[in-house]
User: Fold Orotate phosphoribosyltransferase from Lactobacillus taiwanensis.
Amino acid sequence: MHKNQIISQLIQKKIITISPDKPFTYASGILSPIYTDLRLTVSYPELRDMIASDLANLIAKKFPETTIIGGVATAGIPHAALVAEKLHLPMIYVRPKPKDHGKGRQIEGRFSENDKIVLIDDLITTGGSVLNAVKATEKDGGHVAGVSSIFTYYLPDAKENFKKANVKYAPLLSYPELLKKENESGHISSEQYNILKTWHEDPWAWSKKFNN
Assistant:
């Protein structure tokens, strides 16, 4: 596994940006001292290959029954393609919503009710988009064995959402691992470390406090 190398490259290439003093605003309205743009990973061959190899190994270990790799549009599609190639498995991908023309498909690619599908997304924040993809896949008769991703914040909301949906989840990298690596490297101060840790424990409370 290349976890430490991947985390180092994500930081060095500014794919993950940490800014405890000037937080970013997410689409949900939440403020965050970290911003993750994993779409950039496809621009770096060595990095994307390490990610694909580690995801393939992770899926083979956690979901050995997998017969199809699925990509969640749009950011999960290239990584799903690379993982499917490494595992020599068929691939499908899931659109955010059905097409408004042709056959109106939301799932592209072929699968049967006997297949065991693992869906891949790049990033899990609350899990909303990937769990919607799970629902769409199962609505079309597919069986989702589980979900994987490059990175997860491991926020309380995500844990609760996956639990409610009864969906297994195996991420490659997590926020606690990133935070540990950054603390050990000396890239952040002890004060910044505490800010990042506090945010992770309750992002909404941290956002409100920062705004005040």
User: Anything to note?
Assistant: The mean pLDDT is 93. The helical segments are 3-12, 45-62, 76-87, 128-139, 156-165, 175-185, 190-201, 203-211. Strands lie at 16-18, 24-25, 31-32, 34-36, 68-72, 91-94, 107-108, 117-124, 144-152, 169-174.
